[in-house]
Amino acid sequence: MFKKILIANRGEIALRIIRCCRELGIDTVAVYSTADEASLHVELATEAVCIGGPKAADSYLNIRNILSAAMYTGCEAIHPGFGFLSENSEFAALCRECGLVFIGPDAGVIEKMGNKAAARSLMMENHIPVVPGSEGYVTTLEEAEKTAARIGYPVLVKAAAGGGGRGMRKAFCKEELKSAFSSAKAEAKACFGNNDMYMEKLIVNPKHIEFQILADSFGNVIHLGERDCSIQRKNQKLIEESPSKAINKELRKVMGGIAVKAAKAAGYKNAGTIEFVLDQTGDFYFIEMNTRIQVEHPVTEMITGIDLIKEQIRIAAGLPMKYKQEEIRLEGYAMECRINAEDPAKNFRPSPGTVDFLHLPAGYGVRVDTALYNGYTTSPFYDSMMAKVIVHGKSRLEVIRRMRRALEEMVIEGVVTNLDLQHLILYQPDFMRGNYNTGFIEKHLAELLKLHEEVYQCKKSQ
Ligand code: ADP
Ligand code: ADP
Ligand code: MG
């Protein structure tokens, strides 16, 4: 097992990894930008190294400084967390060249799956169902129009290098395709420095169902059940839960088997996620593979009792997986709410500031993953996700009630967050019935924002 690991990340995921290393008796090196000097990950790691200025490009994406820090401090491995360098194949390859273990799949696999158009082709070759769409890239508007005519409207124009819900646009008819194509392309260029585009049929109001995968270096590949991540705003996840109401035992077995087959086809190693959309007729299609630990991984941890970060580290250290597929037990229900520093009343504008009072929920079945503390100043340079509240319970109803009371206990003063909005979603009748898809937020946002305003006025007058 490793003696020392560098964590190339910040915020709650850096803490999550540090905590896990402490339990495994592994020393940790935190890296931080000058904006993060007063951060918990710096405080809780065994050692900490400043790697540059506040901008991600100068610090958390600064490959040279991160590798120097790892070698200088005598680390044997690097955990990339999610975002930042976690899906950067060049970084994974350079780790290896420097004699460091990258805690994730091989660089070649990251590259292959990171190109979502190429990943589609690979899946098609392996008889994994993919959404009907283009073969390879779509480079011109004429090609886009031809593809759309072939697969039929509505269509989705997507960036091959896409992630975080960016670089994709819907078109419901030929007239809309022109602007969808150019704006998706422009966003892709701005976000990923790459504007290779592909196209898929837009599945109208599907469910987003993803399967957690674990794969070791001995060819063992298992799945840990699904997560339903259909509560999304602008293709970004807000609430995730497992098991999904749309998945019964038979479908779980079929989709899980296909997810395992997809991971094997990719030559996958370590923890990863196969994402599908599930349409209203029960057909499902691969959309992408995420070659890293996922934000919502705690949902799976709560129902399986398996520490995914520990498994990632064990697998990277060359140990065989502890579990066989038939040993995986899915128990109870789990749900996660992402608490973001953004103002729902102002079109979800990020709202950085200083947390001048913080109270975190706790108690039976409640877990909070966060790097917040009293007096913490959030930084405009990074992601607005501040905390993840995860609850576990015997039934879905118990979980919803537990999540409500957890969010009721939670107090974050000084920064505007989506806490109240998340709380309101937990009372929405369709949500309570589990009767929702990726169109849920768009459909109910006006009604939710109206209630949100009422809650705000009520709190103000108290
Ligand atoms: P998850 O399924 O784990 O929630 P997300 O797509 O939300 O995945 O991404 C997780 C984190 O990584 C988010 O903070 C997001 O902003 C960031 N992220 C995802 N893809 C990219 C990318 N290509 N470039 C930069 N950041 C990304
Ligand atoms: P990212 O890499 O940004 O996570 P994904 O390809 O995973 O992009 O898609 C993000 C979200 O967009 C999905 O969770 C789903 O809600 C929606 N989406 C993606 N592809 C389709 C599709 N073909 N039809 C309908 N919705 C889709
Ligand atoms: Mg995705």
Question: Could you walk me through the main structural features you see in this protein, from its secondary elements to its overall organization?
Answer:
By secondary structure, this protein is of the alpha+beta class. It folds into three domains: 4-103, Rossmann fold, CATH 3.40.50.20; 132-201, Dna Ligase, domain 1 (2-Layer Sandwich), CATH 3.30.1490.20; 207-461, D-amino Acid Aminotransferase, Chain A, domain 1, CATH 3.30.470.20. It is built from 15 helices and 20 strands. It has helices at 11-24, 40-44, 63-72, 89-97, 107-114, 116-125, 141-151, 174-192, 249-265, 297-304, 308-316, 396-409, 419-425, 429-433, 440-460, and strands spanning 4-7, 27-33, 47-52, 77-79, 101-102, 155-159, 168-171, 197-201, 207-215, 221-233, 236-242, 270-278, 284-290, 333-340, 342-343, 349-350, 357-359, 366-370, 385-393, 411-413. A hairpin with a 5-residue loop joins β12 (270-278) and β13 (284-290). α4 packs antiparallel against α5, α7 crosses α8 and α13 crosses α15. The longest helix is centred in the C-terminal third of the chain and has 21 residues, at 440-460. The structure holds adenosine-5'-diphosphate (2 copies) and magnesium ion. Residues 82-83, 163-164, 192, 236-237, 290, 294-296, 383 line the site of one adenosine-5'-diphosphate.
